[in-house]
Write a structure and sequence with these properties.
Elements (H helix, E strand, L loop, with lengths): L2 H37 L5
InterPro entries: CHP02808
Pfam families: DUF2374 (PF09574)
Protein name: TIGR02808 family protein
């Protein structure tokens, strides 16, 4: 494997975990807000 390939794979490896964690937080936040909006009174 060349140096460039090694650098690319290391960057992808180190970037994967924060992306997975932050996207998980975003999905949970969106679903939570959607569920909370279902229960609020629409006649305001």
């Amino acid at each position: 494997m060349s140096t460039l390939e090694s650098v690319i794979w290391h960057v992808l490896g180190y970037a994967a975990m924060p992306v997975i964690i932050f996207s998980g937080f975003a999905v949970v936040a969106v679903v939570s807000i959607w569920l909370l909006s279902l229960g609020k009174d629409k006649n305001v």
